Amino acid sequence: MQSWEQLVSSGNRTAPVVSIVTVAHNAREGLLKGLAALQAGTEVPTEMIVVDNGSTDNTASAVRHAFRGVKLVRRDAPLHPLAAANLGAAQARAPWLLLLDPGLEPVGDAIRTLVEYAGGHPECRLYTGRTMRDRADDGRTVEGPPTLWGTVCVATGLPLDPERLPRLDRAIGGEVPSLTPRMLLVERDLWDALGGFDERLPAADLTVRARAHGARPVLVPDAHMASLTAPPGAREVTIAGLAERMAFAHRHWSPGQARAAGWTLIAAALARSFTGEPWRSAWQDRAWLSTMDTDAPVPVPAPHLPAQAKRSPQETRRTAPQP
């Protein structure tokens, strides 16, 4: 993979090097400030793609009025955020994709920092920086994939979140377990080979599958963006989150680990159903325990994506524990 200067000098100077994809749902003010900062804050040729994911705050009209050069994809009804990111990426032309949350403002030329690092370390293939709030890393660009220990913490309500990697020194950077779509630079060829996100699983699934293609996801600590909005709070237990966790277990863990996770969560749902939602619904409707169809294609609404998105033979169907 070439540096951005080499890409520009060897081809069309007007062609984008990075396609920036942002999914926004009722985040108009932060989105507009972030887009303005991105346009003014980098020397790298970029194109900007905004997916208005069913907003009701007039986001689409505001973007059309203020940023005529932005590609706008309008959804009347919201999609799963990962599916919306796939939809935006399908519009991209550049050799690199940069997924960004709305309301992020570059500190210095963060995009150039990421792309130049990627040009010098093409073996990594997935890259992120740090998003800051009040000059402190908000810890939202790098997370670990779901684990059995993390599942136990969710089930028991322990005030721990090991999958947020609380002991990781983000100021040092280097190779990390998995990246989030909050600030994610990825080779377009790798993205197409993976078929983008699988919305049925947590976002970490993309990194896990990328590792099977030889990727080494990396945190570039000097690539900073300031968060213009408050970061999300503690992770909440939801039925959708439980379903994604179990789908990830069936896809990537051993059968024994997946069964252990299922029994742990079903026991928690039974024991904690008396405390109210969401555990009451989790106990009453246990469809989230069911094995997903791992042979089904990734639901990506991008007609040009290649057939490599099909699952590998190792990703076979596994049976979930039943209460």
UniProtKB/TrEMBL annotation:
Keyword Repeat: no
Top-level taxon in the UniProt lineage: Bacteria
SUPFAM superfamilies tied to this protein: Nucleotide-diphospho-sugar transferases
Biased composition (Basic and acidic residues): 312-323
Pathway assigned to this chain's UniProt record: Cell wall biogenesis; cell wall polysaccharide biosynthesis
Region (Disordered): 294-323
Residue intervals of the Glycosyltransferase 2-like domain: 19-122
Keywords: Glycosyltransferase, Transferase
The keyword Protein transport appears for this protein: no
Pfam entry (one): Glycos_transf_2
Similarity remark: Belongs to the glycosyltransferase 2 family.
Name recorded for this polypeptide: Glycosyltransferase 2-like domain-containing protein
Species annotation: Dactylosporangium darangshiense
Lineage: Bacteria, Bacillati, Actinomycetota, Actinomycetes, Micromonosporales
